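note to self: the first set is below, dont mix up w the second
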Amino acid sequence: MSGSQYTARKSVADIVASGEAGEHKLTKSLGAFSITALGVGAIIGAGIFVLTGSAAARYAGPGVMLSFVLAGLACAFVGLCYAELSALIPVSGSSYTYSYATLGELTAWIIGWDLVLEYAMGSATVAVGWSGYLVSLLGQFGVHLPPELVNAPGLVTLADGSTVQALFNVPAAAIVLLITMMLVLGTKESARLNNLMVVIKLVVVLAFIGFGIGMVNLDNWVPFVPENTGTFGEFGVSGVLRASSVVFFAFIGFDAVSTAAQEARNPQRDMPLGILGSLLVCTLLYVAVAAVLTGLVPYQKLGVPDPIAVGVEAIGKPWLSLLIKFGALAGLTTVILVLLYGQSRIFFTIARDGLLPPVFSRVHKSTGTPHLSLIIVGILVSLAAGLMPIHLLGEMVSIGTLFAFILVCGAVLYLRRAESEVFRPFRVPGVPIIPVVGIALCLLLMAGLPMDTWIRLFVWLAIGLVIYFGYGRHHSTLGKRMRAAGKTK
């Protein structure tokens, strides 16, 4: 077989047209507010409730506020590229679709397979965090779940120093299955639930800021950037940079908004508004929470799993602690919802192109959702959430996401050259500078990840190549058309 199929691209016009194909047509039910809410729902979760404290305690001190600004700026460069591509190519599939239009089928498959690390493993990671908050909340009411059933398999050390052999994280798996059922029932209904949950957690976050801001001790902000310990990344300017690379992952999820393009009522207007609007809202909230938290509590005391709860204790309102934990559960729930939604839409698009079995692209006649794709994804993610520890899941999410971001920035550069005549409802300003800076920032963050994470990425991509050469290339819709036209063998 010649290599032409591997580098064959789908034109922008063909991709947009394929999104409107009969039985594969998704219901257009999302407006700008719902799309922005999807973005806020995906971003505000584990980051604002966990990473703020650990980044301050370990790397930046009160300077973590600057870290969030830098991380938000980096995401803005990538977000602008997503905004242009999602308006130009308003179909499901995220960076998989954009890669198909630029670098060809094989690269598109690789990035599509890589996105499983961001969306599926990301939702599993957050589900494990959701389980932890649920256990903590129930504990306040005197309900104590068996530790064997709320942790991944392995030895778990209890508060009294004893150990037990954990079997399966039941709450983590259960919340994934429950949200999967909701998504199967319909996008519009799921979006309504998401909107409600986003409002709840925003109220909780704003309550923390509102009650805490008047009790901030300015002495806790001095020094604003603690002196470096002599080790790169431990305080000082390098610590602010290191913390920025850590809290960058608190923004993971804004790109999930691009998977909703095919279900947006007016994608050319709503997609850029949704992506950039959700980034702006979340960056402002992150900085405000970081400011209040480090003002309430000395940063050295924030290296705990629930730093916001530590801040609430300093406020001295016990009822607010319960509210915060309820808000954390709501926040993490919406993250799981958006990531499961995104993963099913990516598989939907890949299967429509023939690179995965057609079961992933079937749309339910009543609900208008890719129900079978959702069910399969939901079952696999629930197993990962129940069986894998959170640190392994989190590392894979990080490197997979950054890899996808690089290709999105590259796609903007390529399409500006290859299809310059195509009308762009939204254009990234300052091309090529902004996409190039986006690529550079992502590469910098990837370089800081440990080697074992890189090894896992290569193993995962190798598995994906086996699937492509064993199934995808033979069933590719584009490949079949090329063979029929005699362009390849």
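second set (the one i keep forgetting abt)
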Amino acid sequence: MPIIRTYARLFAVPGTRAFTVWNLVARLPMGMFGISAVMMIAAGYGSYALAGAVTATGLAANAVVGPLVARAVDRHGQSRTAVPATAVAGCGALGLAACAHLHAPAWTLFTAYVLMAATPNTGGMSRARWAHLFRDDAKALHTANSFEQAADEVCYLLGPVLGAFLCTALFPEAGTLVGAVLMVTGVVLFAAQRGTEPPAGGGAAVPLRVGGAVPLLAVFAATGVVFGSLEVVTIAFADGQGHRSVAGGVLALQAAGSCVAGLVYGAVPGGVDARRLRVCLAAMAGLMTAPLLAARAGGLPALAPALLVAGMATAPTMVTAMHLVQRRTPPERLNEGMTVAVTAILGGIAAGSALGGWAVEHAGEPVTGYWLPVGAAAVALVASRRV
């Protein structure tokens, strides 16, 4: 099949399969930590607002710490920087689980989650390797970027399912603990793949060139609000209908739709530009109305396929936006540039989580919270006009 041959070309390069496998292991917990923390804190403290505030604080801290870690990665190399940073993040995850288990004061939850902001941008490090390997092959790099976005979606497909299953089938802290083990193991073994690591060293700490950079980051932030609010509202909606244990599976359908769309998009030829980004964002804004309408009309059974449909514009949007970031980032600062973009997403997720938690507790019914991703997608579309 043409699509299979297109992606097989990437992994014919020596060393690519090894770094990809271990990067996926390291990346999977990124889809686990959010839902695991929400379910763990909501179960122990009885408050979705507190759970949303804790995750929002940790993600907001990443907006400060993430680019600093990425800058160190660019200057000193992936293998020398990622492992100690992950050790700090792992301690934060273990501390969060311990505090929740012991019902420690709420402020300790915030402190522990902030330590997790030291987690290196594993997806960015993988994209930097592809950019180094295919620096003279734009078509292969587009395919690699699409694969990486699909990999992100796989992690956010399997991560919530695994996190929710562990938290409900074993004990509330299980998702966070398993995530910490996978993160540390994956990063250590990914960093050990030296043959594909891009060279260290960088110039001035200016990750994005002037020219549409600020509006592009605004697009990332608004898209993050879509993700953060959608996750918290869906968990609360499923819980309200007595189906908390299937919340992760329902959310995974959104990631599944995005994953499939991303893989197909990677095999589609054609230039990636700001106009294509606006088309993708317009599609996302329209499709995000599906969960709102489905939740109002048919409850959880109707919501599941609506999330699948809503996800189909996500990966193409992110692939296109990330490619624009790569174009506007000096090669020696590539990891930092992509981390700044991811940080904008995480900042948006933080805001979306907090807004989603507030909405489900104060807006009368959880379904009202589905207006948040609709509005955030519209804001992203408006911001893209200046990219």
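remember for set 2: The mean pLDDT is 81.
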